Every structure is written in C-alpha cells, then in structure tokens.
C-alpha cells in the first residue's frame, strides 16, 4: 500500500523540464480543464441537449394542450351538469307544489267523502230506528187487537146464547142483502 500512496505523492515532485507531465497547480489547471470540457460538451452535446430540450418542450406543450382540452371538456360537463341540476330542481319544485296541491285535494276529497258517509250512516240509522218503531208499533197494535178480539169473543160467547146468536147472524145477512141491492 505504501507504493500506491508514494506514487501519488511523488507526482507532485516531478520536474518542470521540457517533458510531458501533470501540472498539479489547481488554480492554473482548473479553468483550462473546464474550458476544454465545456467546449467538447457544447460542440458534441449541443444537438443532443437541443433534442432533449425540444422533446421536453413538446411533452410539456402536449401536456398543457391535453390539460386545456380536458379542462374544456370538464367545463362543458360542469355546465351540462348545472343545467341538468337546474332542470331537476325545477321539476322537484313542480313535483313539490303539485304534491302539496294533490295532498290538499285528496285531503278535501277524503273529508267530503267522510262527511257523505257519515250522513248516509245517519240516514240509515234514522231509517232503521223509524222502521223498528213502526214494526214495534204494529206488533203492539196486533197484540192489543188480538187481546181485544179475544176479550170481545170471550164476552160475546159468555153473553150470547143460541137464540141471540142466530138473530144477530140473520140481521147481518139482511144488512148484507140490502147493501147488495143498493150497489146493484
């Protein structure tokens, strides 16, 4: 390892005679080396660097163009969406108004229908009560009449004898005969 480091150290001690060698003075050699490297890079790398920059520029321009197109498309879609939203909101408002109107109309129809049904039920109730009253009155009349008839028959049977019975029948037949002559 000592030989390797000695060879680098000994480079700094070479004489400046007319022979070829390395100049170890950093301040004197750096600007020259840099100008040579830059000259070579500019001469040979000018086309490559220009192409790279042109390609990069084209990619950036294409990206900007695509972005503008996408932005335009997005703006169009946004406007369409806003238009659809306004249309849907108007339809929703219309449905809401129509719905409230329909609800009120149905409510009034239901109330009117209920009142009509209640009136009909009241009429049916009154008719049923009247019918039951008439039926009850007729039943009471029939019972009273039947009891009166039974009482009258009982009284007649107990009061009439055969002779009186025959005279009553004869008088009634005579009355019917007279009535028949009058009507003829």
Automatic annotation (TrEMBL):
Q: Which family does it belong to?
A: Belongs to the ATPase B chain family.
Organism whose genome encodes this protein: Maesa montana
* Pfam families documented for this protein: ATP-synt_B
Transmembrane regions:
32-49
Q: Does the keyword Thylakoid apply?
A: yes
* Misc remark: In plastids the F-type ATPase is also known as CF(1)CF(0).
- Oligomer and partners: F-type ATPases have 2 components, F(1) - the catalytic core - and F(0) - the membrane proton channel. F(1) has five subunits: alpha(3), beta(3), gamma(1), delta(1), epsilon(1). F(0) has four main subunits: a(1), b(1), b'(1) and c(10-14). The alpha and beta chains form an alternating ring which encloses part of the gamma chain. F(1) is attached to F(0) by a central stalk formed by the gamma and epsilon chains, while a peripheral stalk is formed by the delta, b and b' chains.
Membrane topology per the entry is: Single-pass membrane protein
**Per its record, how is this protein called by name?**
ATP synthase subunit b, chloroplastic
Keyword list (alphabetical) reads:
ATP synthesis, CF(0), Chloroplast, Coiled coil, Hydrogen ion transport, Ion transport, Membrane, Plastid, Thylakoid, Transmembrane, Transmembrane helix, Transport
Task of the protein: Component of the F(0) channel, it forms part of the peripheral stalk, linking F(1) to F(0).
The gene coding this protein: atpF
Q: Coiled-coil ranges per the record?
A: 71-98
Tell me the compartments it is located in.
Answer: Membrane; Plastid, Chloroplast thylakoid membrane
Please tell me where this protein is predominantly located. membrane
GO MF terms here are: proton-transporting ATP synthase activity, rotational mechanism
What domain of life is recorded for the organism?
Eukaryota
- Give a Gene Ontology cellular component term annotated to this protein: proton-transporting ATP synthase complex
